[in-house]
Amino acid sequence: MSDDEFKTIGEMMPITNAEFHAIRDLVYDRFGITLSDQKKNLVVGRLQKILRERHYTTFKQYYDVLIADKTDKLISQLANQITTNHTFFFREPDHFDFFRSTILPEMTQRHKQKGDDDLRIWCAAASSGEEPYTILISMMEHFGHDYKNWNAGLLATDISEKALVAAKKGVYEPHRLQGVPDAIVKKYFRRVGDMFEVVDALKKEVTIRRFNLMNKTLPFKKPFDCIWCRNVMIYFDAETKIELVNRMYKQCVKGAYLLIGHSETLGRDQTPWVYIKPAVYQKQE
Questions:
Q1: What is the sign of the dihedral through the CA atoms of 108, 113, 119 and 123?
Q2: Backbone angles phi, psi at 123, to 5 degrees
Q3: Among candidates 159, 169, 185, which has minimal Cα distance to 85?
Q4: For 74-123, what is each residue's pLDDT tens digit?
Q5: Tens-digit pLDDT profile for residues 188-212
Q6: Alpha carbon of 70 to those of 21, 66, 210, 271: distances in Å?
Q7: CA 22 → CA 32, 51, 69, 112, distances in Å?
Q8: What b/e sequence results for 235-251 when a residue is b if at least 16 CB atoms lie within 10 Å of its CB, and e otherwise?
Q9: May I ask the CATH architecture of the domain 3-82?
């Protein structure tokens, strides 16, 4: 939340409990995001600009228009405002170490035994692109020149259209690459003024799509070898989280891995995923 959103209550648009609860329930139904009563000021801070731009005088007016909208554009705008897209390259590096040392060797061995080259990876909370590009960099570094012999790449999805536009551009401020080795930066990025842009060879390996994780069915033709779903389920209640990871379980091959955020946990008696190490689970049946 930016500093200008933390204005005094007197400068913020008023919202009734009924209006907040209506918007809160809509956000939960559409995106699975739980907003407690303590989030009321945050919601006002993030949405009041939209109301003022559209000359709405109450949050009820805004809610009524949201409900009536058939284009999905306003709902997408709501998702952009409510969700927080804070990420950077090689965030939570333990996952990328395990991905290179364990997941990728197991994946490739499994596919060699089957006689196919189709590696299937889904980054389910892609945000502005740092995570899917980091996954790809890890794959390319692991395979080296052999990467071209695999049908690799990955699917990157997010609910926020704004975040996905940024992911497709692939242009980042220097602090997003803080801690990334210079050799990796030189190999996979080009300098554009004061910014860094992902090279085209990396961009073309990512399929970027808008997708709502609350969809009751996952419309993918083939199962995945690995799903990254990190730092999004912190917004979900326990029931929503378990329903989601169980849907993902059905969409994976035996031996597939699920990686979640290090601040997230799964109840081991509520899901068939098998705990491997902190924030890493596997489908073993």
A1: negative
A2: -100, 105
A3: 159
A4: 888 888 787 766 688 998 899 999 999 999 999 999 999 999 999 999 99
A5: 999 999 999 999 999 999 999 999 8
A6: 22, 9, 17, 35
A7: 14, 16, 16, 52
A8: bbeeebbbbbbeebbeb
A9: Orthogonal Bundle (1.10)
Which residue ranges make up each domain of the chain?
3-82, 93-282
Which amino acid is it at 121? I
CATH superfamily label, 93-282? Vaccinia Virus protein VP39 (3.40.50.150)
Are 196 and 174 in contact by the 8 Å Cβ rule? The answer is: yes
In the structure encoding, which two tokens stand for residue 174, read together?
């220097």
Cα angle value 32/268/247 (rounded, 5°): 45
Q: Which two tokens stand for residue 235?
A: 């917004």
Q: What is the pTM of this model?
A: 0.80
Residues 221 and 169 sit within 8 Å (Cβ to Cβ): no
Structure tokens at 88: 């950077």
